[in-house]
Amino acid sequence: MQHFHGMTLQWVGHASVLLQTKKGTSILIDPWLESNPACPKDWKAPKKIDLVLCTHGHGDHIGDALAVDAKYHPTFVGIYELTGWLTSKGVKKTVGMNLGGSYRFQDVKLTMVEARHSSGIEDNGTIVYAGEPAGYVLEIEGEPTLYHSGDTALFSDMQLIRELYAPEIACLPIGDHFTMGPRAAAMAAQYVGCGKAIPIHYGTFPVLTGTPAELREHLAGKKIEVIDLKPGESLQ
Ligand code: NI
Ligand code: MN
Hints:
Elements: E1 8-13, E2 16-20, E3 26-29, E4 51-53, H1 59-62, H2 65-72, E5 75-79, H3 80-88, E6 94-97, E7 102-105, E8 108-114, E9 120-123, E10 126-129, E11 134-140, E12 146-148, H4 158-165, E13 169-173, H5 182-192, E14 196-200, H6 212-218, E15 225-226, E16 234-235
The structure holds nickel (II) ion (NI) and manganese (II) ion (MN).
């Protein structure tokens, strides 16, 4: 078991990550839970979720947003157009932001950062514009700084994330096809300068072929630890 100060980080599967801070704030990044095929059948839903961060509008990221709202009534953070769509569906507590901006919620300061991907919401047979895709940097009191890149290709401005925030832990997609694969993700980990990389967004569907073993090969000798969680497993 890795020690992680007082915080718990659970990989629910695919891109969904659940955080519980030492002070008790419960944060879900990307609400895709029960309908997520990577989410273990015996997964225990948390008692509460205070804050939900949405990286972009694709169904494998916000597919359970409305169900999570109905059950937990959390505050949803996302890019402006995406939270506007959530509001149109009846979500009451939203914080619409844009790239480069920060928002403070209890013991967490989060910053919305760039991602290179697309973002549209499938709604009743049409695709609704959902703004730009995003990643998040979370600076939590007394904890290592965390970066969740969302779905993204590699881009060289990830080096700015290192300059500005120096995240210790990075959740990075490695599956390939819809995002970067292991070779590019290894470079992303070096660009952001993390000490620990948690591979996500792989294995859920057959086309997501990247593996943590490949990520590890590409990071050989780089002093970046690959933390190969299984869906449902936690760092604490
Ligand atoms: Ni996507
Ligand atoms: Mn995705």
